[in-house]
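Q: Convert this sequence to structure tokens.
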Amino acid sequence: MNRVIGYLLAVVILGLLAVGWVGNLRPEGQEVRLTGPDMIVIARSDVFGELKRPAVPFKHEKHVAALKEEGCTVCHEDHGGRLRLDFVRADDGAGQDPMNAYHNRCIGCHKKRATTGATAGPQVCGNCHVPGVGWVRSHRPAGLDLALHKRHADAFGGEKKCDDCHRAKDPKAVRLIYEMSSELKNLPLGQAAHTACVGCHYERTARHETAGPVACSECHEKHAMPDWLARPQGLPEGYRLLRDQKDTEVIDVGDQLARMPSVTFDHSSHEGVVSSCRACHHDSLQACGTCHTLDGTEKGDGVKLATGYHERLSTRSCVGCHRAETASVACAGCHGSGPVKPISTEESCPICHHRGERPAARLDISGYPAKAITIENKYTGIVTDRYGPASFDHGKHVTRLRERIQDDGSHRLADRFHAGRQFLCTACHHHSPPIQEGTKPPRCTSCHRQLAEPAQPESPGSPAVYHQRCVGCHQRMNVQKDGHALGCRDCHSSREGET
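A:
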């Protein structure tokens, strides 16, 4: 939970900085600019010591384009066929401090190119060290999702040839882990990752083999870190990245400690609906209970195990992820209509927490009202003058919802959580008691009169309710007729003489 709050806070502060609203969080009088994916801001006090001039914004891809014919080795040393990404090479720094080494390389190159008439950079201090500007990093992190991992595996000759990246095995399990080579271990993570990944791409390109990108924007924009909760694209049906994981896992904290039965978690079916294992397991790829204990630990940011599974505001938790899924087009018709009365824990918890055989997940709609209902226009005004009554086919709507829940194989979640009729009715009959077999919920007009009661502002009139609920649902679920969004006369009949 702490990580979620921290991430949201960072996003808010970044946005406010970008538009200059947080005066106390930026240096006085500075203009805030975003770096974009290809800009490297050179301002490292750990390298240069006390900084006496402003930072230098270095546009990497602009330099790559200008030096296309010369190639990367103009700036980066070719170290045994693989690029070294630290700019100042060992021979450049002999007898020089880092500042002079940078100046000699950069300004020297600019002067040389200027004498030949080629496009050249600045040669005076103030044109590189831009005063009055505060830089905010705005590129998206690069990410290796399941689809991109498979592309790498295929490029290296299949899943059985993995040692180019994976140099070790987990001693406690039969699975590969990523381990950096000895020459990378002492480098900062960003530099080590660029040296390994971009260096490999460069090496394969030089050998005319299938290779990944070397341009900043290719990884940090076009192929940037995906939404881990997004469904993976470009993977064959049933593809799994095997890491010695079980198909199903019983989540049990012990009968003496648990207030609910254990959960049989279908791990294999969840793998097919996320882009990366990190969607649930963070970067560590460890089991939930490793960091999140019953009482919470510092390793797990104090998040207890029960909270890790049930926190509604975190997309890493089971309940939170399921809740986030309700924003999809297939679900938003009901779940986006406003406050839906929550099903009591007595009815919803056993869907996951159950003893013995899992409850049935097929929705039986027999006994649902199937007739069409005519919704009259009884109030005066332009709507009555132009449009006749609307016909609401209750059976057709129930059947269509049932089809969306059960026939869409990618939404087994909906199939599982809508097995009871009370789960289907509550979106429209939102303040009714749980619908039991043999009972009927009250009509909309039982609570919503033709005209809103001033004494009950929380209960709008029935015309407003019909249009908010019905039209809103059609829009959220992108319901169309003949390729167009539904209009008034798709529901309302016309008055005599109207066309």
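The radius of gyration is 30 Å.
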